[in-house]
Amino acid sequence: MADFFDEMNGTDGSTRPAYEIIKSWLDGVTPEALRARSREAEMLFRRIGITFAVYGDKDAEERLIPFDIIPRVLTAAEWTAMSRGLEQRVRALNMFLADIYGTGEIIKAGIIPQELIYQNTYFRPEMVGVRVPHDIYTPVCGIDIVRVDADTFYVLEDNLRTPSGVSYMLENREVTMRIFPDLFNEHVIQPVEQYPNELLDTLQSLAPRTAPREPTVVILTPGQYNSAFYEHTFLADRLGVELVEGRDLFVRDDVVYMRTTEGAMRVDVIYRRLDDDFLDPLAFRPDSVLGVPGLLSAFRAGNVTVANAMGTGVADDKAVYTYVPDIIKFYLGEEPILNNVPTWRCREPDSLAHVLDNLPDLVVKTVSGSGGYGMLVGPASTKEQIEEFRAKLKHDPDEFIAQPTLALSTCPTFVQDGIAPRHVDLRPFVLTGSKGIKTVPGGLTRVALKEGSLVVNSSQGGGTKDTWVLA
């Protein structure tokens, strides 16, 4: 682990200031006591019912995401710099989406190849020329951040369609406060529990002009078999809004209504948690039974706000990700505060040649992949797996990007053998409404629980931690 930045311990054996109290506590607590606290946390999560599903895994329809009881700590200065970079990035991405569905100035300027946009799987021609409220396409963003040294944070990925994980951020905090009240009270930690109120305020601020003073907001879920269904029910409860499925809504005269026991009720804002393809069978997939027929027409008429807007996926495509620094410079005239991970676009011949020559040392991802699927981690792969990916790259290079195997930072983690460093990333959540941009202090830390693993996704065996931002 000497090659990786240890967020708690300095190379000279000292403890970094943010972790001094935690280090002292860890030195004085027994493994048995930590194990008892870990069991208590698991019991609380089971009682609450926090689960997720893994598609295609018949033995894991409902599974607890492993929770590590040792919190991750960030200083106020680290968070301030990171949040400035996040807000800059999200502001530019919203301007980019408004542009590509409008006049396409960034394409005319030759910054991004037009085929990368107009031939993109997630580009929605139906959205061209449609104005969304306040030009905010992505009110809710989850930006994945990795750390490689004391001063360097990279953006690994932008999640702009239906970013998940905020329920775990909130529940992790509640559980930590219950099992370690004394340790929590020894720190001055910025709160996260205001997130549901800020999310509701953000969504209501984007309601159509025709909406009443208190717009009706609903959360649209694909249903109980969705991997993030727990989060959908959690957020509906915390926001105090209705959780609906497509069959609970209908469109009449380009207005969306919700079926209630007291009759039809107009809906002003839909926080959707299902993909574009399934939102409206009249506009997208005709075989979808999850969406609302006529929803796109109501949206285009300006009678309902859909958050995040349809077509936002083009901006979190991994090939488009490589252009985000240029997007920031083009729209804001600023240098990026947070840099991308160095990335090779396999669609470019020179980059493809480099990637093919160095496959055993690289991480290769599909441009539309997510959840840790469809990727090659060269150093952890067999020769057969590498050769299989080599063939895929040669056959369809446009579908892949490649990155160096990053030396992700580590945090102390309680594992079966005791306390050990494990690799982490961070997903902060950024809210953009008509009143401005807000970033919840902390976000969701994901941890690769397997020794040596760099894959933190819960679907690939990762867990989560509470994230403390010191005041």
Automatic annotation (TrEMBL):
InterPro entries per record: ATP-dep_Glu-Cys_Ligase-2, CP_ATPgrasp_2, UCP005522
SUPFAM superfamilies: Glutathione synthetase ATP-binding domain-like
Ranges of residues in domain Circularly permuted ATP-grasp type: 71-448
Protein name per Swiss-Prot or TrEMBL: Circularly permuted ATP-grasp type 2 domain-containing protein
